[in-house]
Specification:
By secondary structure, the chain is of the alpha+beta class. It has twelve helices and 19 strands. It has a seven-stranded mixed beta sheet. Strands 8-9-10-11-12-7-13 form a seven-stranded mixed beta sheet. The radius of gyration is 22 Å and the shape is globular. The model has no long low-confidence stretch (mean pLDDT about 95).
Length: about 400
Amino acid sequence: MDLIAPAPADHLDTLTDLFARTFSTYWGQVEFAREGYIGHSPYDWKASRIGVVDGEVATHFGVWDFSMRIGVSVVRVAGIGAVATLAPHRKKGLMERTARDSVEGMSAAGYDLSLLFGIPNYYQRFGYVCAFDEIRTVLKTKDVKATDLAISYEEITGRASDLVAGQLAELSNRENEGVTGTYVRPTYLTNRMPEKFTVYRFADGYVVGGADGESYQVADCAGDPETIVEIARRRACAEVCPEIEFVFVPPRSRLGEYLQTLTHRKVVDRHAGGGPMMKIVNLRRTFEKIAPELARRLAASPLRGYRGRLALEGDRDRVVLDLIDGRVEVIRDAGGDEALPDGRIAAGADLVRLVTGDGDPVRVCRQAGIELSGDAGDLLPVLFPDQEPSTILWDRF
């Protein structure tokens, strides 16, 4: 098998056909992949990999290029999707070779982290660990009180690519600034499922939603939370949906906080060995990028005057942070006395869970067997607090 990066001119039609056949229950049509999932998207042709056997594309390991927020900082994330092997080539170890070749090239391609939504008990071999919960907030339509506000909104038909790429991206970025786990827009430039999701535009905001059985699902939104909920209520009534489901709304977002004030049911999914999984691709570059956010947290804490060095150990390498009066700098770790740390966090692959704030940090350390020594116990909750990270449904790959 030959492992190569796909080329748009040579492989676009082949890949869309592969996706449509392999993921027919999800993708629905070839057009979905060609015009929304690969085309008009951040699909990375150079970092993705295909395995070619006797001239036929047998495997595909796709990479989508996203910029993810970690507080006020932004890291580059390789989103993994459309992992597929044609039926005649399965159970031969070809996908493992394809995936490993792509994963091992991500650091050189400029990525800091990688994220996927995986089948159970497969991706650990590449260094991925379960990274965050998937949260759906469900309201009963009849329990949502109609607002007294005078609300008007416009239904945007078709793919609305100009709105998503322009106006909606700007509104989304403003809404989610500083919210860990969200992406800097634009990501996808079209409504990939126009048969399901419709864009509703109102003053200084929007709602993307549609009926899914007895539930009205909100896939993306921005703007005044009360207005968003009212539009969702009206659409749920129009679609005769007894429930309104806000899918993967970040709990720390403005809407996420507002939903906590309403009567609701929260559905939390956590997949043992699967689901949302992440890995650190480049440890040093990741911490250089998130140093401003770590400094912000440190400066706002009782340890703002702390001076010392903290070693952070991943699965293959480590970095040392120099902490001085609320400032954070990644220093060269030569392994000698010049980088002798005052504290140490030996986390292995689970270090990514601290980076993204996947839960209470003390519990994360206990669950993952992360070792703390020296001043690490005091610095841990300051530098790596719970962030309740979540990606938005619109951006899923």
